[in-house]
Design brief:
It is a single chain. The protein is 40% helix and 20% strand. It is of the alpha/beta class. Helix 1 crosses helix 2, helix 1 runs antiparallel to helix 12 and helix 5 runs parallel beside helix 7. It is elongated.
Length: 525
């Protein structure tokens, strides 16, 4: 089994994406996660471009990494100076990384238009920059920027730039699809020409502007590339970089290439979500391999089949990458969906029990009204428990009232909610204000119930989404509210639907509170 070296550039190329920025402490934490995952190289940044990256290289020296090598990124020297006097080159050396990666111009168009120097002078820039760095740093990697575009425009010159790097005895030459427009079928023939003149180990660095970054990387590996550069979750400039969360399992599980161990691969989803969290971005649920929907099944025929043999509708076992099979419940559901969800919730349901069909019909009827249980599995579990008669009666809401008042044009509206709840034989009548009517209603419900159930103080409302259904009816439309709640032990989603947004919110809030009580009761028993 051949070894493929993984080179992660999330902390440098990934941060060039719109809406992504990491503090130094975040970059250190991500580097530690990548090291635990088993990534071979972690590109920490460009120390010559900003103080934050200089700080990273200083701080990372204090951190023990088990196997990853820290790489610093930069460019070849400027024209009309020498490497030892070029500030960018000197800063790379001063950062004292384990390896250094610099890029140079491969496309003659860029040499003429961006650098405004001769083609021969560009070759000198590449060679003497790398020669100097090779003397100062143990390992040097050369990124041939715009290689594929350059090769198509002027193959002879593009290959000369690689030869200039090879003469400097660099450790790896990386072929870059910088504009992301190369297609997979173009890769083999170009690599064949490269190998005729270059014996240095080759790497690949692709961008996703043509939605082919992963495919191009895998095609390159299939034709002899030994280093793959990319980012976690495909973060990167414009449309992103090659997504290592897709490349790694494809290499290991489908191409038989050694890159991570089986145990390390099982942490892939965890690392993906960790990076999303530190980037303050919502994880992409439809992401291959690691997304929430990657192994989610909605159609009844699909669910029935995977209950017998998961391979019928799953290309790999999700556990291999730290994911799980999920069964969704919707108007497309069959009996198999209900049984699978019941098993997931440890609820005993017989396939021949008429209640199963009753639950199925209820779901379809509710979804026809606008309910959606795919993001509200807590509401679905409560629905099943009610149908089976296993739902303990924790409380009932006798009634509620919400008042929204704006007393002066310049002032913010004041929101107040009043609720009456009944727990056992006792009735609690409570009022509370809040930041808007829904928050006021949430506060009033909690205030009334916390006297009976103190554990509700642990619960937090984490997310609140409103969807108008169907579009086109304006203020007369039906509203669906999805609420995500959580405590120290987990998160859960609930849903409410009504032609009144406050009532829809109330239904979702009550389910959220009930689920917390049901969950805690199950843990105690």
């Amino acid at each position: 089994m051949s070894v493929i070296k993984l080179y992660d550039t999330t902390l440098r190329d990934g941060t060039q994406a719109e809406d992504i920025s990491f503090l130094v402490v975040d970059k250190i934490r991500i580097a530690q996660k990548l090291d635990e995952l088993g990534v071979h190289y972690i590109e920490g940044g460009w120390p010559g471009s900003n103080p934050k990256d200089i700080a990273f290289f200083k701080e990372i020296k204090k951190v023990h990494l088990s196997q990853a090598r820290i790489a610093a990124f930069g460019s070849t020297r400027r024209a009309k100076t020498t490497p030892d006097k070029d500030n960018n080159i000197r800063t790379l050396v001063q950062a004292e990384p384990d390896a250094v990666t610099i890029f140079g111009k491969t496309w003659d168009f860029h040499v003429h238009e961006a650098l405004r120097i001769s083609l021969e002078e560009n070759l000198e820039l590449i060679n003497d920059s790398l020669v100097y760095l090779k003397q100062e740093i143990g390992e040097v990697i050369y990124d041939a920027e715009h290689f594929f575009d350059g090769f198509k425009a002027n193959p002879d010159y593009a290959l000369k730039t690689l030869a200039a790097a090879q003469e400097a005895q660099v450790d790896c030459i990386v072929l870059c699809d910088t504009n992301g427009g190369t297609l997979p079928h173009e890769i083999p023939a170009i690599l064949q020409q490269v190998k005729k003149v270059i014996s240095t180990p080759l790497g690949i660095h692709t961008h996703n502007d043509g939605e082919c970054a992963v495919a191009n990387s895998l095609m390159a590996v299939a034709h002899g590339i030994v280093q793959v550069q990319g980012t976690i979750n495909g973060f990167g400039e414009r449309c992103g970089n090659a997504n290592l969360c897709s490349i790694i399992p494809a290499l290991r599980l489908k191409m038989g290439k050694e890159c991570l161990t089986d145990e390390q691969l099982r942490h892939l989803r965890e690392v993906s979500r960790y990076v999303f969290e530190l980037a303050n971005l919502v994880p992409h649920k439809h992401q291959a391999y690691v997304g929430n929907s990657a192994f989610a099944h909605k159609g009844g025929v699909h669910v029935s089949a995977i209950q017998r043999h998961p391979e019928t509708y799953e290309h790999i076992r999700p556990e291999l990458v730290g994911n799980v099979t999920r069964v969704l419940v919707s108007d497309l559901s069959g009996r198999a969906n209900i049984l699978a969800k019941a098993e997931e919730f440890n609820i005993n349901v017989d396939s021949k029990d008429p209640v199963t069909l009753e639950i199925l019909e209820t779901i379809k009827e509710m979804e026809n009204k606008g309910y959606q249980f795919e993001g509200a599995e807590a509401s679905f579990e409560l629905l099943m428990r009610r149908a089976l008669g296993t739902m303990r009666h924790h409380f009932s809401v006798i009634g509620y009232r919400v008042i929204d008042t704006r007393r002066h044009e310049e002032e913010k509206p004041l929101s107040e909610a009043t609720v009456q709840v009944k727990v056992g034989g006792r009735i609690e009548h409570t009022a509370a204000d809040g930041n808007g009517p829904v928050n006021a209603l949430d506060n009033a419900l909690r205030k009334a119930l916390e006297n009976f159930y103190p554990q509700l103080k642990e619960m937090r409302l984490l997310d609140y989404k409103v969807r108008v259904l169907p579009a086109g009816k304006g203020t007369a439309s039906v509203t669906r509210v999805l609420i995500e709640s959580g405590d120290k032990n987990g998160r859960w989603g609930t849903v409410g639907v009504s032609d009144n947004i406050i009532d829809a919110s109330y239904l979702a809030l009550v389910d959220a509170l009930l689920y917390k009580l049901v969950k805690d009761q199950d843990q105690e028993s």
